[in-house]
Prior knowledge:
CATH superfamily of the largest domain: MoaB/Mog-like domain
Shape: elongated
Radius of gyration: 31 Å
Number of strands: 28
Largest sheet: 6 strands, mixed
Mean pLDDT: 93
Oligomer: single chain
CATH architecture of the largest domain: 3-Layer(aba) Sandwich
Strand order of the largest sheet: 7-4-6-5-9-8
Number of domains: 4
CATH class of the largest domain: Alpha Beta
Amino acid sequence: MIELEEARQQILDRITPIGSETVPLAEATGRIISQGVPTRDPIPPFDNTAMDGFVVRAEDTRQASSDHPITLPVVSTIEAGTPATTPLERGQAMRIYTGAVIPSGGDAIIPFEHCLRHDPDSVVIGSRVTAGTHIRRLGEDVAAGASVLEAGARITPAAVGLLASIGADSVPVFRRPRVAVHSSGNELVAIDAPLKPGQIRNSNLFSLCARIERWGAIAIARPILRDDREAIRTGLQETLDLAPDAIVTTGGISAGDLDHIREIAREMGDDVQIRKVAMKPGKPLVDGLIGGVPFFGLPGNPGACLVSFEVFVRPALAIMEGRTDGLLPERSGVLKTERSLPAGDRLRLLRGRATPDPTGGPDVIEIPSGQGSHLLTGFARANCLVVIPPTAQNLQPGERVLYWSLADEEA
Length: 411
């Protein structure tokens, strides 16, 4: 057997980004930027006021106090979008509104509420103001000629606003990986089909496609691969003809007489590894390149299939898209109830649910029953994988454990 970390590193060492494309800014939310975007203008593009009030020369307020206020004449009004036509002279004030251009000569803002009195013609000031007060400087956020957002950054709603502010109506982003998904097995039928003896519905196709789409990649649902060598070869070749960025199959990778996928993948591919990974669930794994396309053969049991996706496929898709968040976030919590496990020789990844402690302590971890690799009910409400060492047997309430969060977090 090979340790999980070693197997994963070998897989990721062969994965590279798949290239970039340019998309309209309106469609860029959630995408990963592939290169910094140069500015057209500095942001802010001019000195402007952060407050409604009066623009003054700070030097004119140097002697102002509550005991000896000063009165300045108000010579004009400046609104956002309409710059002043004359400079601010010594001993003058101008009424100004948020976002308006600071006039030549002005260097400080006194908000309306900080004035002792004011009317359309004059303002009474009872304290000195420092130069630069409440002024947003040209280029304060983004300097002229600079680039915003580094390659690998996720485009959040705030980033969309930033890009819009510099006039970027289109954005270079990494392509979303196109992932072809095959389930395999003679026992599989469509999900709307009535079940005959020995048949099961093709649930893995739907759970994997949903997970791929939720992760941000593009799922391509492909036909069931029946347990026949030539049918598998033909099916995989037809999928390669669609030029996907990755191929994922489920089932057909163990040591049974009808488990042909692993051998066909090896015949068709390059550096295809048939592995036994020291993890439970998810021991069988096939990975490599077929026609230059990364291939992942995952277990057929639905629980094991999804765990293997999170551990091996998710980080590979992240690299393809230039993301840095491929590995499941590792956290710690405390068990809520006692749990007894048999000792073994593989790392256990138990489906669990982490809940924040209302008192501010560590997260509380529930591990439901139904941990079999063929079961999905517990997985359907899980939000984490609880990492249990191979030799651990008697887990006690309050015991600290590590877990990998299944919640997709955005920057």
